[in-house]
Every structure is written in C-alpha cells, then in structure tokens.
Backbone:
C-alpha cells in the first residue's frame, strides 16, 4: 500500500482502484460490478453485475461484443 501512495486508514485496493478512507458507495460500486476482458485488445472493462446479457463497446479499441453478467 505504501508503494501505491496510500497514507490514509483504511485503504482498499479493489482491482486496480485504490480507495482511501471508508467510502461505502464507492466500495459497493467497485465490489458489485463485474470486470470483463475485451476479446480483441484484452482491456479490462467494469460492467454492472446481474443485468443479464449486455452489448458492450470497448472504450479502448471500439470492438463490440456481448457478455452475460
């Protein structure tokens, strides 16, 4: 955590997101989302969970694909 610059307590690392302090709303959104990988460029995309089949456009390469959450 010190390497990431986390100097507050508590500090949470959720995926690639660093949350300093207890922010219940931000932690809930990070924990209850689903991270999927773009099949074309392998970028990590955060999607809402339990929404059925979603049509996704990758923010990095623009590829469109479907995934179920």
Residues:
């Amino acid at each position: 955590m010190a390497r990431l610059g986390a100097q507050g307590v508590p500090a949470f690392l959720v995926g690639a997101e660093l949350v300093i302090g207890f922010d219940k709303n931000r932690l809930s959104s990070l924990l209850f989302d689903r991270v999927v990988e773009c099949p074309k460029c392998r970028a990590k995309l955060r999607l809402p969970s339990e929404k059925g089949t979603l049509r996704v456009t990758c923010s990095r390469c623009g590829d469109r694909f479907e995934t179920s959450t």
Q: What stands out?
A: Residues 34-69 form one domain. The first strand starts at residue 11 and ends at 14.
